[in-house]
Amino acid sequence: MDYTPNRHDFDRYMTPNYAPQEVIPVRGKGSRLWDQQGREYIDFAGGIAVNALGHCHPVLVEALKTQGETLWHLSNVFANEPALKLAKALVERTFADKVFLCSSGGEANEAALKLARRWAVEHHGEHKDKIISFRQSFHGRTFFTVSVGGQPKYSQGFGPIPGGILHADYNDLESVMQLVGDDTCAIMVEPMQGEGGILPATPDFLEGLRQLCDEHNALLIFDEVQTGVGRSGELYAYKNYGVTPDILTTAKSLGGGFPVAAMLTTDRIAPSLAIGTHGSTYGGNALASAVALAAIEFIDTPQVLEGVKKRHALFRGHLETINAKHGVFKEIRGMGLLMGAQMATEYEGRAKDILALAIEEGLMALIAGPNVLRLAPSLVIPEEDIAEGMARLERAIEKLVVKA
Question: What's the structural domain count of the chain?
Answer without folding.
Answer: 2
